[in-house]
Write a structure and sequence with these properties.
The chain is an alpha/beta fold. Helices cover 49% and strands 12% of the residues. The strands form two sheets. Strands 1-10-9-5-2-3-4 form a seven-stranded parallel β-sheet. β9, α12 and β10 form a beta-alpha-beta unit. α4 runs parallel beside α13, α5 crosses α6 and α6 packs parallel to α7. The protein starts with a helix and ends in a 5-residue tail after the last helix. 41% of the residues are buried.
């Protein structure tokens, strides 16, 4: 009987030591002082606690966690692929860097097949993807912008320059949009649509193999509102893909007319539309984007993936 009571007492001590060490984060010496034991006895209690399954140590497997997040996002939104980048840093710049490198590693094998017609979007993430994309010799690929040119100063909104930069990285051919994204009037828009430059790009938009896009949030909507006068029509939008604006339900909002860009239907009919986006401030926009039906591959980081799932009330 004494032996049983002694074993019960030892188990209680194991539990107490384990709580103080693993949950309360006390040192072994602090636990020894609190429990009136030697440090060596506390060390043995903690070892025994693991052996007797009082404590179960689970090793965090980042790759497995990312695979689970990928499966949950695909199931929640009905998209074909999700690639989640495992990151340890909470620094947004580091997370974005690691995510675009993960995106490059996913996209490069698709381009190495050759003979791909590749539409490039714009934005800071796509700019960084182009900068970080590895130099590679590919065969028979053609790169082109998904919209006309703008006079916006930031390099991330210069569609032809982004196209040139990306094409240079993979040794691809390139076609430029020698027309504006938004002509000054409906009459000018109709005139540009009659040019051979526009018709060439429009034919490519109708036959995209791979579209590489970012996902903008409210910040980009404000930027475009100032530049193009979207005003009240953009108020219900929470994000955009290649200047196609949408609300959180995935319904499209048309804040501006007379724009020359690949259409929503062009992106839906593309062989693959790959969206690269990260940042918890983009969670709402990513939810809306995935509900539009435009995206069939999402590449993001694990923090953003969890924020997206939390946004729709899924267990993360």
């Amino acid at each position: 009987m004494l032996g049983v009571k002694n074993m019960d007492r030892q188990r209680v001590q194991m539990e107490e030591a384990a709580v103080l060490y693993y949950e309360k984060k006390h040192t072994q010496q602090e636990i020894a002082d609190l429990m009136g034991l030697s440090r060596q006895t506390v060390s043995k209690l903690l070892t025994d606690a693991v052996r007797e399954s009082v404590v179960e140590i689970k090793i965090h497997n980042a790759q497995q966690d990312c695979r689970e997040l990928e499966g949950k996002i695909c199931a929640a939104f009905g998209i074909e692929h999700t690639v989640v980048c495992g990151v340890s840093s909470t620094n947004e710049a580091v997370r974005t860097l690691m995510t675009v490198k993960k995106a490059a590693a996913h996209i490069l094998p698709l381009l190495q097949k050759g003979g791909q017609k590749i539409g490039i979007s714009w934005g800071r993430t796509i700019r960084q993807l182009a900068d970080e994309f590895p130099k590679a010799a590919t065969m028979g690929n053609l790169v082109f912008p998904l919209f006309g040119a703008t006079d916006q100063e930031p390099a991330c909104f210069q569609s032809n320059e982004l196209t040139r930069s990306f094409a240079d990285k993979i040794g691809a051919g390139v076609k430029y949009a020698w027309f504006p994204y938004r002509p000054d009037s409906a009459e000018d828009c109709a005139l540009f649509q009659k040019t051979s430059y526009y018709k060439t790009i429009c034919n490519l938009w109708n036959d995209i193999d791979i579209a590489i896009v970012g996902i903008g949030n409210n910040e980009i909507i404000r930027t475009f509102g100032r530049a193009f006068g979207y005003k009240e029509k953009s108020m219900t939008a929470i994000g955009d893909i290649s200047t196609h604006f949408f609300d959180e339900s995935g319904a499209f909002v048309a804040p501006c007319e007379n724009t020359l860009c690949a259409s929503e239907e062009n992106l839906k009919q593309a062989g693959q539309t790959i969206a690269v986006a990260c940042g918890e401030d983009k969670a709402q926009a990513i939810v809306g984007a995935l509900r539009t039906g435009l995206v069939n591959t999402l590449i993001t980081d694990e923090y953003t993936a969890r924020a997206v799932l939390a946004r729709i009330g899924r267990n993360v």
